[in-house]
Amino acid sequence: MNHQLNSSLGIIILDEHGHFKHTNEVAQHFLYYFETFKSHFQENIQHYCLLECLCEITNLSINNGIIFIQPLSNVVLLERENKKSAEVYNELYEVINSSFDGIVISDNKGLILHQNPAYGDITGLHPSECIGRNLTELEELGVIDHSATLQALYKNDSVTINQSINTGKNVLVSAVPIRDKTGDIKKVVNNVRDLTQLNQLETEIQTLEETNQKITEELKSLKEQLNPKLSLISSSAKMKEVIERALKIAQIDSGVIIQGESGVGKEKIVNLIHMHSLRKKKPLIKINCGAIPENLLESELFGYVSGSFTGASKQGKIGLIEAANDGILFLDEIGEMPLDLQVKILRVLEEREITPVGGTTPRTVNVRIIAATNRDLNAMVQAGEFRKDLFYRLNIIPIIIPPLRERKEDVIPLTYHFLKELNEQYGLNKQISSEVLERLRRYDWPGNVRELQNMVERIVLMSEDNVLKSAHIDKEFSNDRVNDRVETMIPEANVPLKQYLASIEIHFLKERIKEHPSLRSAARSLDIDQSTLVRKMKRYNLRVEDIK
Asked: Where would one find coiled-coil regions in this protein (predicted)?
């Protein structure tokens, strides 16, 4: 009985503080919703359904607390899907039949499957004359002079034609192929209108097109919200506060500085702000101020006119600020921006104007600037390394993203999220054992979410077992420690001097890049230009994301 209970029910046992002290394997799949379970338990709600994860919950106050999770059975889910499909079919049928336009649907052989009442009113053709007959036959009999459906099937594309019917009607027919996932045509939908009424219906057509565009945009927005790749996975109260703060300031244009360690997800917050802002239909342009050499950063941001400098394009070039006009410009690693360039960014914020490099005529821009950094800008202002006026102009609404070690409640949901993505991407069916989840949760993750994602990907792809256990993660943690140690071994015999020196230079570059927040500061510590450092990294195929 206990075995049957454990295999069908998820069980979460709470301690006196409301934290879970034990979960079985079934409950592991629902830990993302633990905060919801916990709040309902504290509200003394004994039994309820949670549609978000399709389960029934029962709360018992025995030995501090037990939460039972009953996943809905496949039969119930299938019944719901069938009911939903029937509702959608009936709604679609009603929409087609209530349309003022004539609509005819045929299969990929030209056989007519359905026509709505409006088609009969427009053409004078009764359903008995059309449904179940092939359009080739109707052409041969002279019922119609030529078929838009047959042309669409032949051209493998949409077709619009003028069509004459033996009832004396002339109509405009638009045939649109409906395809399956592989791109093959399954059906063709014909939209039919009386040409004599088109002039009267132009205004209606415009309205319908606008409505269709709005519906398409709403559907796209809904898909983006439901797509886990575009969602922010969070369970901790700290991260939920960050998300709520970002959503509150999304529709205003106040200055924002997003602060947090490397890998915490600053770019994700910028995407969230853009997605929910009034500028969401306009560009979101991103630039890493620390990854571009100082002598090129100004021309990248402000553009340049013809003949501004040696090597400049004869046509000139539009800058990223102007490219982001009416949208959002994301300045990542703003702390690495040179002081003289900070003055020009301040002018953009205050005057809404830019002047390209080599130009004399200002250009008006309407752009929202969001900045991010992993450095302490307050300390940089005090040290004279960052302009105070720009700092206060940008830092109207600060968003501070806590490191993953301060929100460990997010580790397990993030792990499941990355695991699901990898399983879908590579067609796998990997699972993670509870001991591995606990190991991941206890680790401090100095590289934050990015490091966690890399580790999950590594153990999933390197393991041959379907269930990931402690041995797999121990091996990868061990490899990290080995890679972090300085290699001081004497090279093997007959190794060329050039190769030996290159290996030392690679190691030295990696160490400096790890120690500094940006390529510019790393280059400064090496006493070389940033462009020289970038060139050496390209030579040795080194990437910042792989090193950090």
From this structure: 191-225
Q: Quote the DSSP letter at residue 287.
A: E
Neighbours of 405 (CB within 10 A): 13
Tokens of 385: 């390394």
The span from the CA of 67 to the CA of 49, in Å, is: 13
Contacts of range 157-164, beta carbons closer than 8 Å, 24 or more positions apart: 162/195, 163/192
Contacts of residues 505-511 at CB distance under 8 Å and 24 or more positions apart, as own/partner, are: 505/536, 505/540, 506/540, 506/542, 509/533, 509/536, 509/537, 509/540, 509/542, 510/542, 510/547, 511/486
3-state SS, residue 539: helix
**H/E segment holding residue 85:** helix 74-98
* 218 Cβ contact list (under 8 Å, min separation 6): none
First vs last Cα of the chain: how many Å apart? Answer: 51
Q: Which residue reads 């886990």 in tokens? A: 228
370 neighbors 328 (Cβ within 8 angstroms) = yes
Q: Which helix (H) or strand (E) holds 107?
A: strand 102-107
- pLDDT for the residue numbered 364: 93
Check residues 313 and 161 and name the one with the higher pLDDT.
161
Record the tokens describing residue 64, joined without a space: 């501090």
What's the CA gap between 186 and 176, in Å, rounded?
Answer: 11
Give the residue from 236, 151, 194 showing the smallest Cα distance to 409: 236
d(CA 230, CA 265): 12
- Per the rule left: phi > 0, alpha: psi between -120 and 50, beta: everything else, 190 is beta
Give the tens place of pLDDT for each residue, 337-395. 999 999 999 999 999 999 988 888 899 999 999 999 988 898 899 989 899 999 999 99
The C-alpha atoms of residue 284 and residue 328 are separated, in whole angstroms, by 5
Q: What are phi and psi of 61, to 5 degrees?
A: -95, 70
Whether pLDDT at 304 is above 50: yes
Q: What are phi and psi of 292, to 5 degrees?
A: -115, 130
Q: Could you report the per-residue pLDDT of 259-281, keeping only the tens digit for each? A: 999 889 999 999 999 999 999 99
pTM: 0.50
pLDDT band at 32 (very low <50, low <70, confident <90, very high): confident
Question: Quick one: pLDDT at residue 419?
Answer: 93
Distance CA 476, CA 454 (A): 11
Tokens of residue 255, six digits: 């200055």
Could you tell me how far CA 209 lies from the centroid of its own chain?
28
CA 417 to each of CA 57, 227, 249, 449, 546: distance values in angstroms, whole numbers, following the listed order:
23, 11, 27, 12, 21
